[in-house]
Design a protein that fits this description.
Number of helices: 5
Oligomer: single chain
Structural class: mainly alpha
Order of helices and strands: HHHHH
Strand content: under 5%
Number of strands: 0
Radius of gyration: 15 Å
Bound molecules: flavin-adenine dinucleotide
Largest sheet: none
Length: 125
Amino acid sequence: MIELSAQNRRAELGRATWTLLHTLAAQLPDHPTRQQQSDTRQLIDVLTRIYPCGECATHFKDIVRRNPPTVHSGPEFRTWLCHVHNIVNRSLGKPSFNCNLLVARWAPLNCSESEETGSSGSVNG
Ligand code: FAD
């Protein structure tokens, strides 16, 4: 049986999206390029508009409006992301995550890039 309820699909989508965001944040360098900063800000902005759970997107848009993303350094963005994830956690009655444990929970993937894709402007640094 592979059919999931709407609630389970929403949770699965949420876990997958947070995994993408926290992993991406873990790899944002201490001094991101302007392109990396712009890409990161845009990713968050786009999510507030096209995140597939409309109710979540509206909620997240309000959170981001009140807490604009800080993308000037990897550590700042990681802290911001942990903070906004905790706002979502609290709104769902979940416990807050201890942001001091971010590095232990979300390690960079450190995949080597293929020669064809090149490395300029990528968030992998
Ligand atoms: P998740 O919250 O998905 O977290 C995954 C893992 O991240 C956890 O197991 C933990 O190890 C770690 N983690 C938890 N908190 C933090 C943190 N603060 N910083 C770093 N790591 C952390 N669901 C709704 O029902 N309503 C909504 O309005 C809603 N809005 C959402 C908005 C966004 C942008 C996203 C990405 C998801 C949203 N969700 C929403 C989904 C919801 O946040 C959860 O993903 C879902 O309920 C599954 O929760 P979970 O307990 O498995 O862990």
